[in-house]
């Protein structure tokens, strides 16, 4: 759209044309009538016939110094039809009003009666006096015709006809001096033609041939000018009813040179486009006159790189004392390189003089007629403006305006310019009928558009209807309510400043990048390039190729201009109830601010309902989150109601940790939890050893996402349910858990290392691992009772969950307990019941221990001690050795034979055993629950020693067999005191 054209070009056209046609009307109209004044002698001069102008008899008009030749008495010619017709040379008339004031002086070289009522004048000159102005009329010939007696009803001026209006204060002599080329003052308006025909009966003047109008700031050429006058009921004053120009050869305008009236300033509009009334005048000028004029058929206005085209141009203007008042056309500061030194109120240009090259003209052309009509009542469009122009077309988009240099164009059905407010409106009847095209900025398409140039060179565009911008630096934009576009016109090209859109805004670049919001504003830099995009209300911005999405109540995007119309997103900030996604990373919060730079999160601060998802299935939920790009860490803070929750889901294992506060260190994905907390491990694969595991700790945790290791600190506890009947537990001061995958790809918790240490209260907490088997309690339908227990304690335990193996590299204790009743024994056979193998077995060692739970085997090393307490008895059996292999029942826990029952013991190296007082020392010892026997033997060159208190003696043998049911024992090669064994 020709944004400068509107202010400098179109407004100038309106004012210039109005001044031209009004000037013609003024210089051709007769003086005002004085009501009630009689006409002396009943004689009316031919040029004033039918106009109500009062003049004295012609014989009385000679003045001293004027021609002494007495004019012919026209009254006598008219009164006596038989009187001869006489020719008069050097004919001169002076017209005065009732007060004797001079109104006009008309002279002719010859005054020739051609026939009755028809007179011919040669070399006609007239000076018309209008208050303090002088109007000069010159023509080669003149002809007047009478109709009713002496009353001339029409006339014709022909040849080189000119009418000149001189500035106020210029005398008749000064005007004549200028016409003769002897200096003087040039006129401020001049009308030229080859013939003017007037008809006083019709109140009409017609110049059918070529015409020319020149004035300060304008030149108009054409053919077929018609002026029509009439009177209304309120006054006998003639009123201009119509000015019509049939054909135009073009209009040239220099808006800065058009004169204005300073008596009162016009109204205006505020920055938001609302009308503001004009201030009350200090002195009320004369009654204003309102005119409407129109041009039709291919109207074109152009100035340098500016152009406007329409089917029809219609305009309204309000004049005071024949001139526009100050501010009627608001002065615009649009181009620094075309500023002019000619003020609007002081510059004058002689008719025919050309403006300087630094002030090029506005060129206006049209093919149809031009019409001007005065209006009795001003239309509503002039409520706040003195000059209004409206371009219109029959079809949508046929009003076209543009500034080729600035790269701006407008297409619409109608465009209305309010010159006093420097405000214009573009309208269409269908969506998309208005198009604002700003090269390298935007193509805005809508149905209603308003532009405010009142603060020029700043420009503000308002769009109050839905629309879209098909190109905002390569991005497509749509909105559902309204838009505002601010720009700067101080340079050769339009520089965008800000584009604000409201209502379901969509920004789409077409290459999988875009944004949606309720409100969106694009701010541009000093070169007119977009630098930031701010959005509010249900904001969503996305870059599909980079996996980047931002959602929130507000967003701010910083852009980096690239070659052409492209730009890159360098930083993005989303806030409010927000969500930010970058690759596998997601940040969410009810009150969050997240900033991305070069595709990476550089800062996030969030409170209330915070949820974070990072790479490799790591997720965090908390109340408060703070990220630190320098330390590459994220601090998480929880509350009693909303603690920090860390979840890691990968390879079929879900790890969930709940703690008071935590820190995530990127990119290693190291998570540190501070304070007591709980957690869970859940395996999705049905073939996993555990369905789930519960974790608890008192100090904190450290999770390494890269190595898949979890460390628990401070009074930790772990409980995993193998199936309905069997549960595994672990406790320690510190625990290290490895999370990795096996060859099949199914994830497992395959390693855990438990450490003992002083607890928070200073009491030593051992590393403990245990397996418990329970069965339904017959006395409690909802409860379960402990059936058997296997527990390992040491300062350090290594647990392999996949193979169900527990290793103790240091000293420790193993407890195996079976509380099941022995249904194979008689209840009264107490002695036999004690030998069933069921009860409690306690193993101690000082070296190491390896427990393979799935195999039902434990291997103990160095200083091994076993104490066995059978069920329902207090008799303790003891076994000491340096190395021991213990085998226990390994049937499924759901089996009736389930439970952890010692089935066999293989003791080696320095074996000592004590059963019901029977003691023995041997190199090896084997206990089998199936045979209820103990077999002790010695290595080559050594002996088994047996002390039997029942026999009061001890014995040596190569081997010893003890029957645990009867207590009897036998030996091979036995010797010793106390008799034969």
Count the beta strands.
Answer: 63
- Unreliable segments (pLDDT under 50, ≥5 consecutive)? 1-84, 263-269, 277-283, 336-358, 742-747
Percentage of β-strand residues: over 45%
Please bin the fraction of helical residues: under 10%
Query: Can you tell me the overall shape?
Result: rod-shaped
As a whole number of angstroms, the C-alpha radius of gyration is 57 Å
Structural class: mainly beta
Intertermini distance: 126 Å
> What is the mean pLDDT?
75
Main sheet attributes: strand count, strand direction, barrel closure: 59 strands, antiparallel
Helix count from the secondary structure assignment = 4
Keywords:
981 residues; mainly beta; 59-stranded antiparallel beta sheet; two-stranded antiparallel ribbon; rod-shaped; disordered N terminus
What does this structure look like?
The protein has 981 residues and is mostly beta strands. It is 4% helix and 57% strand. The chain is built from four helices and 63 strands. It has a 59-stranded antiparallel sheet that branches. Strands 10-11 form a two-stranded antiparallel ribbon. The chain has a two-stranded antiparallel sheet with strand order 45-46. A hairpin with a 4-residue loop joins β35 (618-628) and β36. The relative contact order is 0.05.
């Amino acid at each position: 759209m020709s944004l400068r054209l509107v202010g400098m070009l179109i407004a100038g056209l309106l004012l210039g044309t109005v001044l031209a046609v009004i000037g013609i009307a003024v210089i051709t109209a007769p003086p005002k009538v004085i009501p009630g004044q009689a006409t002396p002698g009943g004689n009316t001069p031919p040029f004033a016939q039918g106009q109500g102008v009062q003049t004295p008899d012609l014989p009385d008009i000679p003045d001293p110094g004027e021609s002494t030749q007495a004019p012919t008495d026209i009254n006598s010619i008219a009164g006596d039809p038989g009187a001869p017709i006489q020719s008069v040379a050097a004919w001169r008339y002076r017209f005065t009003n009732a007060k004797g004031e001079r109104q006009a002086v008309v002279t002719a070289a010859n005054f020739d009666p051609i026939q009755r009522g028809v007179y011919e004048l040669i070399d006609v000159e007239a000076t018309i006096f209008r208050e303090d102005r002088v109007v000069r009329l010159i023509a080669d010939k003149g002809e007047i015709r009478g109709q009713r007696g002496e009353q001339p009803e029409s006339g014709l001026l022909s040849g080189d006809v000119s009418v000149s209006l001189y500035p106020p204060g210029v005398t008749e002599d000064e005007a004549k001096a200028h016409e003769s080329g002897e200096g003087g003052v040039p006129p401020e308006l001049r009308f030229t033609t080859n013939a003017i025909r007037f008809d006083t009966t019709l109140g009409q003047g017609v110049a059918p041939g070529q015409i020319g109008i020149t004035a300060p700031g304008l030149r108009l050429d054409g053919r077929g000018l018609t002026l029509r006058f009439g009177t209304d009921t309120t006054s006998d004053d003639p009123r201009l009813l119509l000015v019509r120009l049939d054909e135009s050869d073009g209009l040239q305008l220099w808006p800065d040179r058009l004169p204005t009236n300073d008596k009162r300033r016009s109204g205006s509009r505020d920055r938001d486009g609302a009308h503001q009334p004009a201030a009350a005048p200090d002195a009320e000028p004369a009654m204003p006159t309102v005119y409407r004029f129109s041009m039709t058929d291919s109207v074109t206005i152009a100035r340098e790189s500016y152009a406007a085209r329409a089917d029809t141009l219609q305009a309204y203007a309000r004049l005071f004392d024949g001139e526009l008042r100050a501010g009627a056309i608001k002065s615009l500061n649009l181009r620094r390189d075309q500023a002019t030194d000619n003020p609007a109120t002081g510059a004058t240009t002689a008719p025919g003089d050309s403006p300087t090259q630094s002030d090029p003209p506005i060129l206006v052309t049209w093919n149809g007629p031009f019409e001007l009509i005065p209006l009795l009542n001003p239309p509503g469009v002039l409520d706040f403006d003195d000059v209004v122009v409206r371009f219109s077309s029959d079809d949508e988009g046929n009003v076209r305006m543009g500034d080729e240099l600035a790269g701006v164009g407008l297409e619409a059905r109608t465009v209305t310019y309010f010159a006093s407010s420097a405000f214009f409106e573009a309208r269409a009847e269908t969506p998309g009928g208005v198009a604002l095209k700003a090269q390298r900025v935007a193509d805005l398409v809508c149905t209603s558009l308003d532009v405010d140039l009142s603060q020029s060179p700043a420009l503000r565009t308002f769009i109050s209807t839905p629309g879209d911008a098909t190109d905002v630096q390569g991005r497509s934009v749509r909105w559902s309510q309204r838009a505002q576009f601010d720009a700067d016109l101080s340079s050769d090209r339009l520089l965008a400043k800000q584009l604000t859109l409201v209502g379901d805004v969509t920004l789409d670049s077409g290459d999988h990048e875009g944004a949606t919001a309720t409100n969106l504003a694009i701010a541009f830099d000093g070169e007119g390039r977009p630098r930031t995009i701010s959005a509010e209300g249900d904001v969503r911005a996305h870059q599909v190729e980079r996996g980047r999405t931002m959602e929130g109540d507000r967003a701010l995007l910083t852009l980096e201009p690239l070659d052409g119309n492209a730009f890159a997103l360098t930083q993005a900030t989303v806030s409010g109830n927000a969500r930010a996604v970058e690759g596998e990373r997601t940040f969410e919060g009810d009150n969050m601010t997240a900033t991305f730079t070069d595709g990476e999160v550089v800062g996030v601060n969030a409170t209330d309902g915070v949820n974070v998802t990072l790479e490799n299935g790591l997720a965090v939920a908390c109340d408060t989150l703070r990220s630190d790009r320098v330390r590459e860490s994220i601090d998480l803070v929880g509350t009693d109601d909303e603690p920090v929750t860390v979840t890691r889901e990968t390879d079929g294992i879900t790890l969930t940790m709940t703690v008071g506060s935590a820190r995530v260190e990127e990119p290693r994905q190291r998570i540190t939890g501070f304070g007591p907390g709980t957690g869970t491990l859940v395996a999705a694969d049905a073939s996993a050893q555990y369905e789930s595991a519960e974790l608890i700790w008192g100090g904190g945790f450290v999770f390494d996402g890269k190595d898949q290791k979890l460390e628990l600190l401070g009074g930790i506890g772990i409980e995993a349910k193998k199936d309905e009947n069997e549960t595994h537990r672990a406790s320690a001061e510190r625990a290290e858990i490895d999370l990795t995958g096996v060859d099949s790809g199914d994830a497992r918790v395959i390693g855990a290392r438990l450490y003992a240490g002083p607890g928070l209260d200073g009491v030593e907490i051992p590393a403990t691992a245990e397996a418990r088997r329970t069965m339904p309690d017959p006395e409690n339908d909802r409860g379960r009772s402990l059936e058997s227990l296997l527990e390992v304690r040491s300062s350090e335990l290594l647990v392999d969950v996949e193979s169900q193996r527990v290793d103790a590299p240091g000293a420790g204790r193993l407890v195996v307990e079976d509380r099941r009743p022995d249904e194979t024994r008689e209840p009264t056979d107490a002695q036999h019941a004690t030998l069933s193998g069921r009860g409690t077995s306690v193993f101690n060692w000082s070296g190491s221990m390896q427990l393979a739970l799935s195999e039902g085997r434990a291997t103990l090393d160095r200083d091994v001690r076993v104490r066995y307490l059978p069920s329902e008895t207090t008799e303790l059996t003891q076994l000491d050795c340096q190395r021991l292999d213990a085998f226990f029942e390994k049937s499924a826990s759901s089996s009736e034979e389930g439970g952890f029952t010692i089935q066999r013991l293989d003791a080696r190296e320095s074996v000592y055993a004590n059963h019901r007082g029977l003691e023995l020392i041997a190199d090896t010892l084997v206990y089998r629950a199936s045979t209820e026997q103990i077999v002790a033997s010695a290595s080559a060159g050594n002996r088994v020693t047996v002390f039997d208190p029942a026999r009061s003696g001890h014995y040596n043998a190569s081997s010893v067999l003890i029957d645990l049911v009867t207590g009897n024992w036998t030996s091979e090669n036995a010797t010793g005191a106390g008799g034969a064994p």
